[in-house]
């Protein structure tokens, strides 16, 4: 069993790690590398709806290599190799400290992004010291446990059976066919309030799958306890149809997070075919999307008087024969007392040495101009934000950039290492 811990944009090489390579280069056994290459070259949907691959194929000297991108998570190959990819947020002197800190940061960002990770883990569980794959599985179990303890959804189901006494209604069409030697038995039908319905069947299947995937004894034990609570529920045999049939009545809304993690387990942790006979188990997150969601969460919590919308659609830069062209989708649309602010989140590192723009791409500035033209056309004050993670070496206060049309582009930095994280550049003129 091989466990490799890498970070975004690191390099994976086929075979042994070359002598003299830095900590961002990782050797991968050849058979596992071949499986990873097939899997990571499968196109996926990016944050803006575009198609992209998880890693770029390249060479490192004479060795085949994969350059990771902004996707983090875990990939497990059939050969037993586990690749854990963490965000590039911490770079202390001691590598293990950096791994622990990066895991902690990722969990915090994921918890702000949806119900999947809002369950509290046991206090005695060292999540930051666990492999990410096991943490995801444990989070799913804790969410399922909370939902099941709150109560399983039930529904009335018609029961048909043959019995000695009358219960419910007599099933006359079947009773008239009863042979003489069984006339003492009655065919009846009645309604019974049972927990066997699409939502609980999906939860049962998810728990069974986690029980097979996890290698931790405490997680296996919790899975067995949940299976006992679901003993009167059969596992889903038609996952897609059951998800389509989900309908939570008002009294069962507490079960919605359990369905979220069931979808994560049954779809995103499912073995994914990546060409030929290659199969890998993976759960991956696009850090562009995770960061955008986290920034929106922080803005809503720190500035409750603002209205913060994400991924706003429906607007375009122009038209051709009454058909919209060049559709726009800013990451954030913020309605503040002073007007609408258009913002894009950038999970990139600014360069303190590239004064005065610090490495901001021309294309990003042009995109913000396009957003402003459409979303701020009726405003006299036009403020635009690019929100980057803070990096050491940047000035504490970055001056605003004056753009054409009386527009102001501000570089807002988010210090992820502080608790709570702090924005700088929001209120500066």
Task: Summarize the structure in words.
Among the domains are: 1-94 and 272-285, no CATH class; 155-194, no CATH class; 303-424, Trna Endonuclease, Chain: A, domain 1, CATH 3.40.1350. The chain is 31% helix and 29% strand. It has helices at 30-40, 95-113, 132-150, 172-175, 198-213, 217-229, 239-244, 256-268, 287-302, 362-375, and strands spanning 2-7, 11-14, 25-28, 44-45, 51-52, 55-60, 63-68, 71-76, 81-86, 155-163, 169-170, 186-194, 271-273, 279-286, 307-310, 315-320, 323-328, 332-336, 339-345, 382-389, 401-403, 407-415, 422-424. Strands 15, 18, 19, 20, 21, 22 and 23 form a seven-stranded mixed beta sheet that branches. A five-stranded mixed beta sheet has the order 1-9-8-14-13. It is globular and about 95 Å long. The N and C termini lie far apart (55 Å). The model is unreliable at 271-278 (pLDDT under 50).
